[in-house]
Amino acid sequence: MQSPRRLFVGPSLRRIRRDLGLTQADMAADLEVSASYIALLERNHRPLTADVLLRLAQTYKIDMAALARSDGSEITARLHGVLKDPMFADIDLPPLENADLAANFPGVTQALLRLYTAYQEEHLALADRGAEALDGDETAPDPVAESRRFLAARRNSFPVLDDAAERLAQTVAAEGGLDRHLLARHGLTVRYLPSDVMVGSVRRLDLHRRQLLLDDAMDAASRRFQMAQQIAHLEMQAELDAALSGAGFVTESGERLSRRALASYAAAAIVMPYAAFARAVEARHYDIEALARQFGTSFEQTAHRLTTLQKPGQERIPFFFIRVDPAGNVSKRLDGAGFPFARHGGGCPLWSVHHAFRTPREIVTQWLELPDGQRFFSIARTVTAGGGGFGAARVERAIALGCAAEHAERLIYVRARQGAGSGPEAATPIGVTCRLCHRTECASRSAPPIGRQILPDDIRKTSAPFGFANA
pTM higher than 0.90, yes or no? Predict the structure, then answer.
């Protein structure tokens, strides 16, 4: 007969105690056990007994099933993901040892995870400082770059927001929708008003009249998203604060941009709950249009959500995401797939995201190969913001979603184009940006790469924009 599995919930118990503002002695008194026993439980030196689990649930109104599932598997998965970093490639780190470390030394594990996140942020900040030095400005703070580093260091994955949003989504569904939830929980009536009445706003909370005002020119997906975003601001402030804690922002604007990004993340997680969305992406082979129809979201919202599916233990394909305007300006950039985005300057003109404007609203696919041999698969399409009526201002942008070549076979876009000349071997050679690309024969080059000497053209003019010494 198999012996029952022992339940170690040290980190979760400590988090519950701290959230309640209790000392170990306070909790011990409430549960009628000794303070030293609580300390042993929190350090995972003792398993949680069924009797104490029942007392916890009854005393603090905790879901026993949720606590029983918090057995360290998530933190083990996070640790395992961190230790996959190439920095540790020469160290033998068996998965069993990782699990033992997480289970027996949760404090040390949390410290390691926190240090790695700080390392990721500083690594990205160093890259930005180097690029800023090339542009002649090493000291000017950049709130946008600061926010992007914050998201990139965490791979745009915030399980604390996903969990809270999933619970909210269940409540919203039970109450009959986002508008009914706002009325039932906050006494807010949703009203749709013309754009000229909204005076430049698409959403405004009128607490005096207990109304949420929305621009009636928005489509259905945008309306749902704005309602979900308002709910996130009203009900998920604690989770937003937790996700932002310890980031060490240099600028107030950087923190505000990051909070705004997290509120949008939470809104997407409410309308596309993690578990349901993760199942759907596999069932539909990452078909963005089909997923958008299923969840009532826009193409861009759905593509954006695909970059967030890295919850430990429930990971899906890691994607990168970029949004550009016709001039090549980047208005959004998220990296969960290790794609080396250009942090300053333009991107590569050979990438199809810059050509998508030629075929509006059509999906353009492309295999990409970087100078170091890495290959990626990219999906690009234009999206429209604004509009909603004749003469209303519209903004056309192009977005690209991509993944590493080893994951591409799982995408419907690759399955549908099988055949000669359609695989990774047909990849377009691109660079990160001209200043960092050493493909000397590229006819689309706009600037010479760093460190290459330009040849004079008084005797010989090359077909490429520049000729280089020792090319």
Answer: no
